[in-house]
């Protein structure tokens, strides 16, 4: 993109973030940020919840405040990490699977096991249905009832509205806030619908696919592309009558994974079975996750993955922002309906229309 097409950033954002200060913030704003920051790093759930609400806001000034808060939390996390020899302190795990795969039951038992072992666990949801329909695949029913009562756990439903891009951004930011609040395990849950799985795979250290032990049609919804992204596949509900089909699915996925391109030089994706009802296989699943983390940390791949994710995240923010500036630009808005109509009728080529719109955008 030529420099003339670049969108100037609103000045106030630049000032607020780069100086992190004080002269730009009013007294009440400073007090609010101080209260949130101190509460958050003190591990208070109410402050964490309020901080996540702040990053989810659409309000322009509050968005700026959210960025200031994030900068402070990031600085705090960097300090903590450098004390930890540069190793990330938290482990981010993405969990996905078709509706009814047993995700919430799985997260409930794994989450309880982990808090029982002294971990602090947060669960964030990315629900693409709330973006498109305003309804929700993940949020409507009561899920993870026990874990939600656990003081060492924090469960946050998906933001109720916005584009997938917007939800992705706020989830990325919510991860940072959870880690600042001392949650050492962050689980990001999504359903296997639309692009949300790929978005989640791009924001975590490890991506886990949950597959129910049912054949045929129910598995049709699982995209090949997402299986390639899985570091671990868990065949759920492996109990009672479901053990034989669970074994069969395990064998099928094990051979399917062998044919796929490896994502990591040090880790081979595995397929395991577990039951949230009997708890069988649950400690083993966690042991595999830990072994993944140790392997990827010692090979340096985990750190490299995070660095790459930061870049991807930045570029997707830029794309989203540039596009919305473009769409809101007065000259573009004026020319767009007529040009769109002419393109649809075949009067001019899409390329020419795009050029004209970009010129209109760049010229004023
Ligand atoms: N037999 C058996 N059933 C299970 C197990 N885990 C979950 N289920 C059942 O499977 C159904 C779906 O479980 P959920 O945990 O709600 O699945 P989910 O993937 O979170 O579902 P959505 O919220 O629709 O995305 C429920 O009826 C559960 O009781 C299990 O380990 N064994």
Automatic annotation (TrEMBL):
GO terms for cellular component: cytoplasm. The keyword Protease does not apply. It catalyses: GTP + H2O = GDP + phosphate + H(+). The keyword GTP-binding applies. Keywords: GTP-binding, Hydrolase, Nucleotide-binding. Signal peptide: none annotated. GO terms for molecular function: GTP binding; GTPase activity. This is Methylmalonic aciduria type A protein, mitochondrial. PANTHER family: METHYLMALONIC ACIDURIA TYPE A PROTEIN, MITOCHONDRIAL, METHYLMALONYL-COA MUTASE. It comes from the Eukaryota. Homodimer. Interacts with MMUT (the apoenzyme form); the interaction is GTP dependent. GTPase, binds and hydrolyzes GTP. Involved in intracellular vitamin B12 metabolism, mediates the transport of cobalamin (Cbl) into mitochondria for the final steps of adenosylcobalamin (AdoCbl) synthesis. Functions as a G-protein chaperone that assists AdoCbl cofactor delivery from MMAB to the methylmalonyl-CoA mutase (MMUT). Plays a dual role as both a protectase and a reactivase for MMUT. Protects MMUT from progressive inactivation by oxidation by decreasing the rate of the formation of the oxidized inactive cofactor hydroxocobalamin (OH2Cbl). InterPro entries: GTPase_ArgK, P-loop_NTPase. SUPFAM superfamilies: P-loop containing nucleoside triphosphate hydrolases. Belongs to the SIMIBI class G3E GTPase family. ArgK/MeaB subfamily. Pfam families: MeaB.
């Amino acid at each position: 993109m030529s420099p003339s097409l670049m969108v100037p950033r609103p000045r106030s954002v630049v000032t607020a973030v780069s100086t992190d200060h004080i002269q730009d913030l009013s007294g009440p704003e400073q007090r609010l940020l101080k209260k949130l920051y101190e509460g958050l790093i003190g591990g208070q759930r109410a402050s964490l919840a309020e901080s996540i609400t702040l990053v989810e806001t659409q309000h322009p000034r509050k968005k700026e405040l959210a960025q200031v808060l994030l900068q402070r939390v990031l600085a705090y996390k960097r300090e903590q990490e450098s004390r930890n020899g540069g190793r990330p302190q938290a482990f981010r795990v993405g969990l996905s699977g078709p509706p009814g795969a047993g995700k919430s039951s799985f997260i409930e038992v794994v989450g309880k096991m982990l808090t029982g072992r002294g971990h602090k666990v947060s669960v964030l949801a990315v629900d693409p249905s709330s973006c498109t329909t305003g309804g929700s695949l993940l949020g409507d029913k009561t899920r993870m009832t026990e874990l939600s009562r656990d003081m060492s756990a924090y469960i946050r439903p998906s933001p109720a509205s916005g584009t997938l891009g917007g939800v992705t951004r706020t989830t990325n930011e919510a991860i940072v806030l959870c880690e600042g609040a001392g949650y050492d395990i962050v689980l990001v849950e999504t359903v296997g619908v639309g692009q949300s799985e790929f978005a989640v795979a791009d924001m975590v250290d490890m991506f886990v696919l949950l597959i129910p032990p049912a054949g045929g049609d129910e598995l049709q919804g699982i995209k090949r592309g997402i299986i390639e992204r899985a570091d671990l596949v868990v065949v759920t509900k492996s109990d009672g009558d479901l053990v034989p089909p669970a074994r069969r699915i395990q064998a099928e996925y094990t051979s399917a994974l062998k044919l796929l391109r490896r994502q990591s030089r040090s880790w081979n994706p595995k397929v395991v079975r577990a039951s949230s009802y009997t708890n069988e296989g649950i400690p083993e699943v966690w042991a595999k996750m830990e072994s993944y983390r140790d392997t990827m940390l010692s090979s340096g791949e985990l750190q490299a993955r995070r660095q790459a994710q930061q870049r991807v995240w930045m570029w997707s923010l830029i794309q989203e922002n540039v596009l919305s500036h473009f769409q809101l630009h007065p000259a573009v808005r004026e020319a767009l309906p007529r040009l769109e109509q002419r393109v649809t009728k075949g009067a001019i080529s899409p390329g020419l229309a795009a050029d004209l719109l970009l010129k209109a955008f760049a010229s004023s």
